[in-house]
Design a protein that fits this description.
Radius of gyration of chain B: 14 Å
Oligomer: heterodimer
Distance between the termini of chain A: 37 Å
Structural class of chain A: mainly beta
Radius of gyration of chain A: 14 Å
Number of helices of chain B: 0
Order of helices and strands of chain A: EEEEEEEEEEE
Largest sheet of chain A: 7 strands, mixed
Number of strands of chain B: 12
Number of strands of chain A: 11
Strand content of chain B: over 45%
Shape of chain A: globular
Shape of chain B: globular
Largest sheet of chain B: 6 strands, mixed
Amino acid sequence: EPEVTQTPSHQVTQMGQEVILRCVPISNHLYFYWYRQILGQKVEFLVSFYNNEISEKSEIFDDQFSVERPDGSNFTLKIRSTKLEDSAMYFCASSERATRRAETQYFGPGTRLLVL
Amino acid sequence: AQSVAQPEDQVNVAEGNPLTVKCTYSVSGNPYLFWYVQYPNRGLQFLLKYITGDNLVKGSYGFEAEFNKSQTSFHLKKPSALVSDSALYFCAVRDGISSGSARQLTFGSGTQLTVLP
């Protein structure tokens, strides 16, 4: 069964450093998403991406964040200058088509980011 | 704005007994409702969804959920719990209005289900 994959599984970085989190969505999916989950808290929406542009973004997704689909398979989340409060589990998700029935978002295993 | 409430942080049930994990929601239009399960150090696994149609939705691993529009609820149920069902369960909602491209899911805070042998 196709799955969303994410790399790395864990990343430790120093405050102020740039990090890039990588995702490979399910191959025939057209919508891509990033969510995050701070330890012990809710899963929060960051951004959605369709047709090579951002569809929606939350208040969390400020100028420090960017997303890109650099080729036909990868979807990346970049944090330009990490802060301590960026420490969280970051989930990538994808969904199949822009139709009502195909609304299920399938999630990857996550990247645990720790900012020191 | 859409929101989800999971009123119980923790649910304990004996193996073989029925289980219920509660969820209530608030959206502007018709709701699309989802249940996901998270095992330790794992991602979110899709269990089931309600888009339209029958109020009782069946999903993976013997789980089902009942959509109740008047009570704005979407409780997750299973007739006979297994120890392996122990995990963190998240209810999620998105507004089903057709305008715009809004597809973000709003998640509840999660309910830790523990099934005791």
